[in-house]
Automatic annotation (TrEMBL):
Cell location: Cell membrane
UniProt superkingdom: Bacteria
EC numbers on record: 2.7.8.26
Transmembrane region(s): 33-51, 58-75, 105-127, 134-159, 179-197, 204-222
Keyword Membrane: yes
Function: Joins adenosylcobinamide-GDP and alpha-ribazole to generate adenosylcobalamin (Ado-cobalamin). Also synthesizes adenosylcobalamin 5'-phosphate from adenosylcobinamide-GDP and alpha-ribazole 5'-phosphate.
Pathway: Cofactor biosynthesis; adenosylcobalamin biosynthesis; adenosylcobalamin from cob(II)yrinate a,c-diamide: step 7/7
Keyword DNA-binding in annotation: no
Species whose genome carries this gene: Pelomonas dachongensis
Protein name per the record: Adenosylcobinamide-GDP ribazoletransferase
Keywords: Cell membrane, Cobalamin biosynthesis, Magnesium, Membrane, Transferase, Transmembrane, Transmembrane helix
Family under the similarity heading: Belongs to the CobS family.
A Pfam family reported for this protein in Swiss-Prot or TrEMBL: CobS
GO molecular function terms attached to this record: adenosylcobinamide-GDP ribazoletransferase activity
Gene this chain is encoded by: cobS
């Protein structure tokens, strides 16, 4: 529970208060990133279901997307924009890392962020026009699997930036494989629960394959350009995996 609260505090804007804090907890809490993702997805699903009773599907989809962004403070969206600003052009590693630290947004980042928002809203709108169960499951799975994909990248790569100047230094240290195993376990529990609820297994399988593919592609990209992951790179991984899972669910309708 303590590590889950640390993960919740790190990934969301929820007012989590703790009496004390140890740096090692931030490293170990990554095992619960998918569980936090499930919570964020559940909030988005609740807004989608409620809003669809009052407005057309596309408005409900935008409101659901806005709710998840408000809950996380645009944490992952910021990483997506910074990553594409840094790696969208052909610049040396040191220059790319410097661009990632720049708070200003450039053309590559703006394009990536705009397309991400547009695509996620469109996919949710399509799902919301069908039986609502598919849209609810898609939100839960996409947010859960996407954060597991980010954990997978963390475990499989060293930190690619300057450890001494990392914003969350404990996350720049090696992540134990057991944390990835526990993160995967949360994904398995969600899949089992949704399967018992009646979600077709092929959708879960397609969603899993989509998240794994994005994790592998991001791992290769970050390894080649930065020789490791960064916090912004993990945010980009989450966003792209989220889109990929929603695409998989929509294709399987």
């Amino acid at each position: 529970m303590r590590l889950f609260l640390v993960a919740l505090q790190f990934l969301t804007r929820l007012p989590v208060r703790m009496n004390r804090f140890e740096a090692a907890w931030l490293n170990d809490c990554v095992r619960h990133f998918p569980l936090v993702g499930a919570l964020v997805g559940a909030v988005g699903a609740a807004v989608l279901v409620g809003a669809s009773q009052l407005w057309p599907a596309w408005i409900a989809a935008v409101l659901a997307l806005a709710a998840t962004i408000a809950l996380t403070g645009g944490f992952h969206e910021d990483g997506l924009a910074d990553t594409f600003d840094a790696l969208g052009g052909v610049v040396p590693r040191d220059k790319a890392l410097a661009i990632m630290k720049d708070s200003r947004i450039g053309s590559y980042g703006a394009l990536a962020l705009g397309l991400s928002l547009l695509l996620r809203a469109a996919l949710l709108a399509v799902l919301a026009e069908r039986p609502m169960g598919a849209a609810v499951a898609a939100l839960l799975v996409s947010h859960t699997f996407a954060r597991a994909a980010a954990v997978g990248v963390m475990v499989s790569l060293p930190y690619g930036g300057d450890v001494d100047h990392a914003k969350a230094k404990p996350l720049a240290l090696a992540v134990a494989p057991r944390n990835a195993a526990i993160a995967l376990g949360w994904c398995g529990l969600l899949a089992l629960g949704l399967g018992m609820w009646g979600l077709p297994p092929q959708r879960l399988l397609l969603g899993l394959l989509a998240a794994v593919l994005v994790a592998w592609m991001m791992r290769q990209w970050l390894k080649r350009r930065l020789r490791g992951y960064t916090g912004d790179g993990l945010g980009a991984t989450e966003q792209l995996a989220e889109i990929a899972v929603l695409l998989a669910f929509t294709a399987a309708l």
